[in-house]
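Morning!

This is the sequence you dropped in the shared folder:
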Amino acid sequence: MSQIVKLFGDNEKTALRRLKEGAGKADILAETGAVLGLDNVSFSVNEGEILVVMGLSGSGKSTMLRCLNRLVEPTAGSIRIGGTEVTELSTKALREFRRETFGMVFQHFALFPNRTIAENVEYGLEVQGVDRKTRRERALEAVELVGLKGWDAKFPRQLSGGMQQRAGLARALCADADILLMDEAFSALDPLIRRDMQNELRSLQQKLRKTIVFVSHDLDEAIHLGGRIVLMKDGAIAQSGTAEEILLDPQGDYVRRFVENIDVSSVVTLGRLVRPQPRLFQGAAAEEAWPLVEPAQSRADEVFVVTCDRDMPVGRIDRGRLSAPGSRGQRLDKLMDGGIARAPAGAVLKSVLPLLASEPHGLAVVDETGRFVGLLTREVALRALAGKQPNEERNTAWNGSSTTTAASASSLWTNTPAAPSIGSPSISRH
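The structure's back. Tokens below.
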């Protein structure tokens, strides 16, 4: 979607011209009577991801969703899905493209009350002319997929609200569309049922790898669903990015107010917070390591020591010990302190706070293979809890270069970039 504009009213051309001239929403309304619904909205959605579009009522999020499949006709702009320019499709071609590409799940279920659940689920295939046997088989598969097996012969009135929404989701899945458009799909449900449906959707997305555009006004829901967030205000995008990016670096007062009551520690992962950290191989000699950690080369008081083969943290050593009498000629693994507390990069901050409180030297954050990513200190954790970004100066990577020890630097020093976050964290002490 690129530079999409939507104006509501009888003077769209005049209003569009005034918009291009720089007129604001209020001026356009006063001069032309047209309402600016979308103001040059642009974003992309990756195949197989969940993109959550959110904002307050009237922000333009539902209008944007309906522009994607032209249930609402955009006034200007481009909508490209795969190799198809959707805005150029004829009425007939658009109808076929919708059937093949989009599935929609609505807030109020939109089930036919006089049809059974199976008949509701197979309706899209019926419209496409699929034979009765095939569409019923696919409908029952979709019903089972969303946890409604055995309810296919019931009518909507015999199901709870959560079950009806599952039926609506099954109907969208039955058509095997590439993209699911979900407009406030769970907002009419009770809180517990709503969370169950959010979990169900995440599970289905991981299994089926559908591309999902999900409209919501609830930031907690957006965070729980995962993926990127597009936050809208007055028909324009106020900020987009991951939940972590928006929480750690909100752009403008509107976004800051939107996220101010969110528990940052339950969202931000350690991989997002840690800073690159110099590390030395355990087999190095003290006199070889010292030039690489002297103040001119490193701002770290302590340096992590890692294994020679897998870059796994095994200890730490400070400058004083490296330069102490008697250290010359000794290997680092004879001088270092062991017993490093580790935590995975995909763990959220809240899960490691008790451990961090008992570790004055911080935690060694590792990726899914156990490789050292960086150090999480109490200072960094407190800044995150206070809603501040990690200190940029301290976040600068040590480059590990030395004019006097260039030859040995490559064999002693590693500075691997932070790895992607991982899930299912477990915290350990080694």
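Headline: The longest strand covers residues 2-8.

More detail when I'm at my desk.
O.
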